From TrEMBL, chain A:
<feature type="transmembrane region" description="Helical">
    <location>
        <begin position="273"/>
        <end position="299"/>
    </location>
</feature>
<feature type="transmembrane region" description="Helical">
    <location>
        <begin position="144"/>
        <end position="162"/>
    </location>
</feature>
<keyword id="KW-1003">Cell membrane</keyword>
<feature type="domain" description="ABC transmembrane type-1">
    <location>
        <begin position="95"/>
        <end position="292"/>
    </location>
</feature>
<keyword id="KW-0813">Transport</keyword>
<feature type="transmembrane region" description="Helical">
    <location>
        <begin position="99"/>
        <end position="123"/>
    </location>
</feature>
<feature type="transmembrane region" description="Helical">
    <location>
        <begin position="227"/>
        <end position="253"/>
    </location>
</feature>
<dbReference type="GO" id="GO:0055085">
    <property type="term" value="P:transmembrane transport"/>
</dbReference>
<dbReference type="InterPro" id="IPR000515">
    <property type="entry name" value="MetI-like"/>
</dbReference>
From TrEMBL, chain B:
<dbReference type="Pfam" id="PF00528">
    <property type="entry name" value="BPD_transp_1"/>
</dbReference>
<keyword id="KW-0472">Membrane</keyword>
<keyword id="KW-1003">Cell membrane</keyword>
<keyword id="KW-0813">Transport</keyword>
<feature type="domain" description="ABC transmembrane type-1">
    <location>
        <begin position="95"/>
        <end position="285"/>
    </location>
</feature>
<feature type="transmembrane region" description="Helical">
    <location>
        <begin position="130"/>
        <end position="152"/>
    </location>
</feature>
<feature type="transmembrane region" description="Helical">
    <location>
        <begin position="158"/>
        <end position="176"/>
    </location>
</feature>
<dbReference type="GO" id="GO:0055085">
    <property type="term" value="P:transmembrane transport"/>
</dbReference>
<feature type="transmembrane region" description="Helical">
    <location>
        <begin position="99"/>
        <end position="123"/>
    </location>
</feature>
Length: 306, 301
C-alpha cells in the first residue's frame, strides 16, 4: 500500500512538471509577454526594452526555462508584469473567494441533491419523478453563461432581491453558487436515484421490510447508505469539473476569485501570472485525483495490485 | 494478401443502420421533436444570409429596440442591439459560425482521437503507455483553462478556435476508442482476421472500427453539444472569433451589460436558442446511447 501511494505521488509530480514546462513554452514561444502587456499603453520602445532587461526577458528561452523550473521548485513563481507583485501573493489573495464559492456550491449539491434523488427514486413514475426527470435534463443542458445572466435578470434586475455582481456583500455569493451547483446537482440526484432503484431489488431491503422496520429506517439506513458510494465518486469528479466551471461562472458575476482572475490575466497577456494560476489549478486537479485513487485503493484492494 | 472481400466486415455496419432505422421508427415524440429542432436550426443557419439582413449593418436611430420594433429598415423581429444591429440576423449568423466551428473541431478531434485510441489500444505496451500518459497530463488542466490559454496566445480567428477546441475533443475519443479496442482485441473476430493474414491496418479499419462505430456516434453527438457550449463560452469570455463577426457567446456577454436597463432580449433570445439546440442535441445523444447500450437506459450521462 505504501509503495502504491509513493508511486502515485511520484506520478503526480511528473504530471505537474510536464504541465508546468508545457505552460512555460506555450506562453513564451509566441513572443515576449512584456511587449504584449505594454502594447498600446503608451510605453516607449526604450521603456519596454528596459523592463525586458529588468525582468530577464532578453535572455534565451532555454536559460529562462531552466531558471523558471529552478525557482518554481523553490516556491518562487515570478513577478506579474502588469502589477509588479509576486504572482504567488496575488493568487493567494484570490484563492479564498474561489474556495468559498466552490464550497457553497458543493453544500448546495449535497443538501438539495441527496433528498431530491431519494424522493425521485421512492416516487418512481409519479409526477415528482417526471418533473424531476425533465428538470434535471434541462439543468444538464443549459450552459453556465445562459443560466447566470437569466438568474441575474430574475433575482437581481426584476425582483431586486440580490446583487447583480461582485463580491462585496454576503448575499453576492448566492447566484454564482447556484449557477455553479446546477449541473452537479442534477447529475448527483440522478445518480442517486438510479443507485437507489438498484438497492430496492436487493435481498437486504426485503429482509428489512419483513422484519417490520419503519419505512424511513429502511430508506435511510438500508437503502440510501448503500446507494451512496457511486454518488461520492460522482461528487469527487464533479469537483474537478467545477474548477473549470469557476472560470466562466466567476466571470459572469465578476466574483473576485481565481477563475475570473485567470481570464483577466490571459486577456491582458500577463503570462507569468497566468503560468502560476495554471500550475495551481493543475496541482488542485492532480491532488483530487490522487486522493480519489488512494481512497479507492484503500476500499478495494484489487486496484492496488494492478 | 487476401483479395476476396470479407463479408464479416460489412455485416456490422448494415446491421447497425437497420437497427437504427427500426429504433427511429419507434422513438418517443421528444426525440423526434429534438431531431426536428436540430434540423430547423441547421437549415436556418445554412440559409442564413439569404433570409436575414446584414448582421453588422447599424441602424443608429433604432438602438436597443425590443422585439417586433420597427426601424428605418423595417421590422426587427427579435429587436436590435446597442448599435442598432438586427438581433435576428446576428443570431442566425452566430449560429452559422458556431456550427462551422463545432463541426470542424469535432471532425478533426474525432478523427485524430479515434486514430490515437485505436493505435494505443491495439498496439498496447509502450505506445499505449506513452499516449495514455499524454491524455492524463492534458486532463490535469481543465478544458476551459486550456482552451482559454491557447486562445490568448494565438491570433484569434475561426481557424484558431477550431484547432483549440479540437484539443478538448481528441482525448474523449482516444479514451473511448482505446477502451473498446482493448475488449475487442482478444475476441475471435480479431483472432480470425489475424489468422487469415490481414495487416494491422486492415484489421483496425475493417474489423475493429465497424464494431466500435456505435460508441463513436454516441460520443460524436454528445461532444457536438459539449464543443458548442465551449465555443460559446470562449466567445463569452472574450477570446473567441473577434468582432464585428457575431458569435453567440459574445452576444450574450455584450447583452448582459444592458440587463440592468431592462433590455432582456439581448440575453434571453440568444440564450434560449443556444439552450434549445443543446437540449435537442443531448436528447438525441442520450437516445442513441440507450439504443446502442440498453443497459444504460435511464442512467444519467
Amino acid at each position: 500500500m505504501i509503495r502504491f501511494i509513493a508511486l502515485r505521488i511520484a506520478a503526480a509530480f511528473v504530471v505537474l512538471f510536464v504541465v508546468a514546462s508545457a505552460t512555460f513554452f506555450v506562453l513564451n514561444l509566441t513572443g515576449d509577454p512584456v511587449t504584449a502587456v505594454l502594447q498600446g499603453t503608451g510605453a516607449s520602445q526604450e521603456e519596454i526594452a528596459a523592463l525586458k532587461v529588468e525582468l530577464g526577458y532578453d535572455r534565451p528561452i532555454i536559460v529562462r526555462y531552466g531558471e523558471f523550473i529552478w525557482s518554481v521548485a523553490h516556491g518562487d513563481f515570478g513577478v506579474s508584469i502588469r502589477y509588479g507583485q509576486p504572482s504567488i501573493d496575488m493568487v493567494m489573495e484570490r484563492l479564498p473567494y474561489t474556495l468559498i464559492l466552490g464550497g457553497t456550491a458543493i453544500a448546495i449539491v449535497v443538501v438539495l441533491g441527496l433528498p431530491i434523488g431519494i424522493l425521485a427514486a421512492l416516487f418512481r413514475g409519479g409526477w415528482f419523478d417526471r418533473v424531476f426527470s425533465a428538470a434535471t435534463g434541462l439543468a444538464q443542458s443549459v450552459p453556465h453563461f445562459v443560466v447566470g445572466p437569466l438568474l441575474i435578470l430574475f433575482f437581481a434586475v426584476l425582483l431586486g432581491w440580490l446583487p447583480v455582481s461582485g463580491g462585496a456583500s454576503s448575499s453576492s455569493i448566492i447566484l454564482p453558487a447556484l449557477t455553479l451547483a446546477l449541473y452537479p446537482l442534477a447529475l448527483v440526484s440522478r445518480v442517486l436515484r438510479a443507485s437507489m432503484l438498484e438497492t430496492i431489488e436487493q435481498d437486504y431491503v426485503l429482509t428489512a421490510e419483513s422484519k417490520g422496520l419503519s419505512k424511513p429506517v429502511i430508506v435511510l439506513r438500508h437503502m440510501a447508505r448503500n446507494a451512496l458510494l457511486p454518488v461520492l465518486t460522482v461528487i469527487a469528479l464533479q469537483i474537478i469539473a467545477m474548477i473549470g466551471g469557476t472560470i466562466v461562472v466567476e466571470s459572469i458575476f465578476s466574483w473576485p476569485g481565481l477563475g475570473s482572475f485567470a481570464r483577466d490575466t490571459l486577456l491582458a497577456s500577463d503570462f507569468p501570472l497566468a503560468q502560476t494560476i495554471i500550475i495551481f489549478v493543475a496541482a488542485a486537479v492532480v491532488t483530487i485525483n490522487l486522493v480519489v485513487d488512494i481512497v479507492y485503493a484503500l476500499v478495494d484492494p484489487r486496484i492496488r495490485l494492478k | 494478401m487476401i483479395s476476396v472481400s470479407d463479408p464479416r466486415a460489412e455485416a456490422p455496419a448494415t446491421e447497425q443502420s437497420a437497427r437504427l432505422r427500426r429504433a427511429l421508427a419507434k422513438s418517443p415524440p421528444s426525440v423526434r421533436a429534438a431531431f426536428a429542432a436540430v434540423a430547423l436550426v441547421v437549415l436556418v443557419a445554412a440559409l442564413g444570409p439569404l433570409l436575414t439582413r446584414d448582421p453588422t449593418a447599424q441602424d443608429l436611430l433604432a438602438v436597443l429596440r425590443p422585439p417586433f420594433a420597427t426601424g428605418s429598415a423595417g421590422t426587427y423581429l427579435l429587436g436590435t442591439d446597442q448599435l442598432g444591429r438586427d438581433l435576428l440576423a446576428r443570431l442566425v449568423s452566430g449560429m452559422r459560425t458556431s456550427f462551422v466551428i463545432t463541426f470542424s473541431a469535432v471532425l478533426v478531434g474525432g478523427l485524430v482521437g479515434t486514430a490515437i485510441g485505436l493505435a494505443s489500444g491495439y498496439l498496447g505496451g509502450r505506445v499505449d503507455n506513452l499516449l495514455m500518459r499524454i491524455v492524463d497530463i492534458q486532463l490535469a488542466v481543465p478544458g476551459v483553462l486550456l482552451v482559454l490559454t491557447l486562445a490568448a496566445v494565438l491570433r484569434p480567428g475561426v481557424g484558431t478556435t477550431i484547432c483549440v477546441l479540437s484539443l478538448i475533443v481528441w482525448v474523449i475519443y482516444a479514451r473511448v476508442a482505446r477502451a473498446q479496442v482493448l475488449s475487442l482485441r482478444e475476441t475471435d473476430l480479431v483472432m480470425a482476421a489475424r489468422a487469415t493474414g490481414c495487416s494491422n491496418a486492415r484489421i483496425l479499419l475493417y474489423h475493429v472500427l465497424p464494431n466500435i462505430a456505435g460508441s463513436i456516434w454516441v460520443i460524436t453527438t454528445l461532444e457536438f453539444a459539449h464543443v458548442m457550449i465551449a465555443e460559446a463560452a470562449l466567445g463569452y469570455l472574450g477570446l473567441g472569433v473577434p468582432p464585428p463577426a457575431p458569435t453567440l457567446g459574445a452576444m450574450i456577454s455584450e447583452g448582459q451589460r444592458y440587463l440592468q436597463l431592462g433590455k432582456w432580449w439581448l440575453v434571453v433570445m440568444p440564450g434560449v436558442i443556444v439552450s434549445l439546440t443543446i437540449i435537442s442535441i443531448n436528447a438525441i445523444g442520450n437516445w442513441l446511447r440507450d439504443i446502442h447500450d440498453p443497459r444504460s437506459r435511464g442512467r444519467p450521462g
